[in-house]
Amino acid sequence: MDQLSTSPSQYKLKISCSMYESLSS
User: Superkingdom, according to UniProt (predicted)?
Assistant: First the structure.
C-alpha cells in the first residue's frame, strides 16, 4: 500500500482505466 502514497497519480490512472473498461463492457 506504500506505492499508493508515493504515486497518487498512478492510482488515479488505474481508477480511470477501471472505469473505462466498465463502460466499454
Answer: Eukaryota
